[in-house]
Design goal:
Helix content: 40-55%
Shape: globular
Largest sheet: 4 strands, mixed
Number of domains: 1
Distance between the termini: 34 Å
CATH architecture: Orthogonal Bundle
Radius of gyration: 19 Å
Structural class: alpha/beta
Length: about 300
């Protein structure tokens, strides 16, 4: 779709939930898109400026050192929404990763397969400047300022690739199950385990450091309120990560997390992904506890379609 469409004069620009360019892409079934940079309004850039400015002191206080190095390596402009081409120019030489623009939600197998190929599905819209703390869905600030700086670290990037491998392992496992109901049941359980692991590590993980606990989870790194709450609040339970706890622990997405897990290092995190895959192959993920997260039809179907090709 051309960037010179009527959307260019739309006051909403590329604002989350109010972006004609995205609506058109979704209507046309386009998941992977380009970033029509000319469509960003001044209000969009102002939202980025406010989000970035208020996070800088909190990153210095709470973020792990690898994230801070990554922010520096990406040379992000604090005053303008970044161009993904510029982000990738700095990112790709470091770890081979690149940000890949998408029109909306990416079904889980496709998301993990992107990670396996060192591509990070990236939202290009940005939240309204008048609602900085309300995030109805991921936006470009969450994805680029929260996730992508971690992708500059080789050990963390390799862990994401390894997690993508696990998605293929899951598809291979269920491909061998003949009974359709059993295939769906086991895939649902495995998916819950994978989603919980990703949530409590990549999105909301804490890490030990010489300065005490630091944040490496992107959901925390992009949240002005929760990044401090995760480290300072007496209401948060923080435990050394144990895989059996993580895969059986439900979570809710619309409130501050009351329970967080701590890893020792990114090498430790990589070893946990290895362990997750071993448990998957041995059947230890076939009967995890019920509850959140719910498994959407699109997510389940993405794994079942992949399994049909195994």
């Amino acid at each position: 779709m051309s960037g010179s469409s009527g959307a260019a004069s739309t006051p909403g620009g590329l604002t989350t939930t109010r972006a004609p360019f995205i609506e058109a892409a979704q209507a046309n079934g386009q998941l992977y898109i380009h970033q029509p940079y000319e469509l960003y309004s001044e209000a969009n850039h102002e939202a980025w400026r406010q989000l970035y400015h208020r996070m800088e002191d909190r990153w210095q206080r709470y973020a792990n050192p690898r994230f801070l190095e990554g922010i520096g390596s990406l040379c992000l402009d604090p005053t303008r929404v970044p161009r993904l081409d510029d982000v990738n120019r700095f990112l790709s030489p470091l770890t081979g990763f690149k940000a890949k623009a998408v029109s909306g939600y990416v079904p889980s197998f496709l998301f993990f397969d992107c990670l396996r190929n060192r591509e990070f599905p990236t939202t290009i819209t940005i939240r309204d400047a008048g609602m900085l703390d309300y995030l109805p869905e991921p936006d470009v600030f969450h994805d680029i300022a929260g996730h992508v700086p971690m992708h500059t670290d080789r050990a963390f990037a390799d862990t994401l690739v390894r997690f993508g491998d696990c998605a293929h392992t899951a598809a291979e496992i269920v491909a061998g199950i003949k009974d359709e109901r059993e295939k769906i049941r086991r895939m649902t359980s495995i998916y819950k385990a994978m989603a919980r692991f990703f949530w409590f590590t990549v999105e909301f993980g804490l890490m030990r450091s010489g300065d005490g606990l630091k944040v490496y989870g992107s959901g925390l790194l992009s949240s002005y309120g929760e990044i401090a709450h995760a480290i300072d609040s007496a209401e948060v339970q923080r435990y050394p990560v144990q895989l059996e706890w993580v895969i059986n622990q439900y979570f809710e997405i619309d409130s501050y997390q009351p329970l967080l897990f701590v890893v020792d290092s990114f090498d430790h995190l990589f070893s946990l992904v290895d362990q997750l895959e071993r448990w998957m192959r041995s059947g230890k993920l076939d009967n995890v506890s019920g509850g959140e997260p719910a498994v959407s039809e699109a997510d389940l179907r993405s794994f079942l379609v992949a399994s049909a090709g195994k």
